[in-house]
């Protein structure tokens, strides 16, 4: 009988009155009311029907089976195993409280019942973190083989759609375990988790539709795949950085509005002043005028080749014009220079000023005034407020 009841690792000794008096852990539910960061209920994960200590439990079998001592011993063995497992869950809960207190974590996401503890332990497992990171990287790497990709990298539609479905299933399992651990109400109140869940649902439906139709379409939701990587356990620094950026925006929103207001005013003024110049591609429309002034404010890269040619042989209006200038001037490495400037999409300062400056030197007054107000006054005020 003793051999059957004995465990190799978890042996429960006989009840000892001194042990029972010295060890009386609370197992009943109690409440703590706090309006800041305290939970509504704590300590309710334990089972109230358990004794105060495993030593207090009566290990004799409760189900009497005639002429079957082996069955009685097996029932007692299973009972002991169940009680020890429940107490192990209580010890896990105590360690969770210690971790949350040491890390200054609010108790609002603490497991609320006995069934939530295994889900909590699964979600906070290192292997689970690695699996979640792998699925996020897998979803991001699909951009290499999906259209529009290089022809040599493209794979059949069913292959990358199936891989995407597998990655989304892993992310969905992680989301389900979080809901089981935190509860629906706590999960819904967490904004980042809700955004991730909504994106997951839409992308899953989209992936299923692609697999059924066997044809792809213009997919905007693919641009939101990085949120799976940002929400990963190992991206705490990225989340902290994004949170700090979002928290720093409210104090400077008024200054940003003033900065863009002056940018719009100068865009309209530049459009009416320089749109008549056929050699000026930067102020042909109001939109191109705004984008050109935005580039003028945010970038200060000076292309030495284009600036040299503009100052010596005239303005440069396009990449093709620059190539002709380079060919005429017999400048070496013209392809690399043209590709470098063309890849930026737009020329930066002072290229944006050169077409209008070639017609009238007084045009520089417009750009000098714009930079003085936007760059040296308003941008400094924005940095000061932040």
Characterization of this structure:
The protein is an all-alpha fold. It folds into three domains: 2-109, no CATH class; 116-248; 252-385, no CATH class. It contains 17 helices and two strands. The chain has helices at 2-5, 17-22, 69-102, 116-123, 126-141, 157-182, 184-189, 191-213, 226-230, 236-248, 253-274, 286-298, 304-313, 319-329, 334-343, 354-359, 363-385; strands at residues 30-31, 41-42. Strands 1-2 form a two-stranded antiparallel sheet. The longest helix is centred in the N-terminal third of the chain and has 34 residues, at 69-102. 17% of the residues are buried. The model is unreliable at 1-68, 301-313 and 331-346 (pLDDT under 50). One of its GO terms (molecular function) is voltage-gated channel activity.
H and E string: HHEEHHHHHHHHHHHHHHH
How many domains comprise the coordinates? Answer: 3
Strand arrangement within the widest β-sheet reads 1-2
Low-confidence stretches: 1-68, 301-313, 331-346
Class by SSE composition: mainly alpha
Largest sheet: 2 strands, antiparallel
Count of individual helical segments: 17
Average pLDDT level:
71
How is this fold's topology laid out?
Elements: H1 2-5, H2 17-22, E1 30-31, E2 41-42, H3 69-102, H4 116-123, H5 126-141, H6 157-182, H7 184-189, H8 191-213, H9 226-230, H10 236-248, H11 253-274, H12 286-298, H13 304-313, H14 319-329, H15 334-343, H16 354-359, H17 363-385
Antiparallel strand pairs: 1-2
């Amino acid at each position: 009988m003793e051999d059957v009841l004995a465990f190799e690792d978890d042996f429960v000794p006989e009840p000892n009155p001194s042990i029972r008096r010295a060890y009386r852990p609370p197992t009943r539910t109690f409440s703590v009311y706090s309006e800041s960061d305290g939970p509504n209920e704590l300590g309710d994960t334990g089972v109230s029907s358990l004794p105060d200590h495993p030593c207090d439990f009566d290990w004799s079998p409760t189900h009497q089976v005639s002429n079957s001592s082996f069955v009685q011993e097996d029932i007692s063995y299973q009972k002991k195993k169940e009680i020890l497992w429940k107490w192990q869950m209580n010890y896990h809960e105590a360690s969770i409280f210690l971790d949350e207190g040491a890390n200054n974590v609010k108790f609002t996401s603490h497991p609320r019942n006995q069934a939530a503890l295994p889900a909590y332990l699964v979600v906070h497992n290192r292997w689970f973190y690695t699996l979640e990171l792998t699925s996020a990287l897998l979803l991001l790497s699909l951009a290499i083989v999906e259209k529009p990709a290089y022809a040599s990298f493209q794979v059949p539609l069913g292959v990358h759609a199936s891989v995407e479905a597998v990655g989304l299933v892993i992310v969905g399992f992680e989301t389900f375990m979080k809901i089981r651990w935190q509860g629906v109400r706590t999960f819904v109140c967490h904004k980042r988790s809700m955004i991730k869940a909504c994106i997951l649902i839409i992308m899953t439906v989209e992936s299923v539709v692609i697999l059924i139709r066997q044809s792809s379409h213009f997919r905007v939701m693919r641009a939101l795949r990085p949120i799976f990587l940002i929400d990963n356990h190992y991206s705490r620094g990225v989340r902290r950085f994004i949170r700090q950026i979002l928290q720093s925006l409210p104090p400077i929103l008024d200054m940003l509005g003033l900065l863009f207001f002056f940018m719009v005013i100068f865009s309209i003024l530049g459009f009416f002043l320089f749109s008549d110049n056929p050699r000026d591609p930067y102020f042909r429309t109001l939109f191109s005028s705004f984008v050109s002034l935005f580039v003028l404010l945010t970038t200060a890269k000076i292309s030495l080749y284009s600036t040299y040619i503009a100052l010596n042989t005239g303005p440069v209006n396009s990449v093709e014009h620059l190539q002709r200038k380079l060919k005429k001037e017999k400048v070496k490495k013209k392809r690399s220079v043209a590709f470098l400037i063309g890849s930026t999409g737009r020329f930066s300062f002072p290229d944006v000023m050169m077409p209008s400056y070639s017609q009238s030197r007084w045009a520089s007054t417009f750009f000098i005034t714009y930079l003085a107000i936007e760059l040296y006054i308003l941008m400094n005020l924005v940095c000061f407020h932040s």
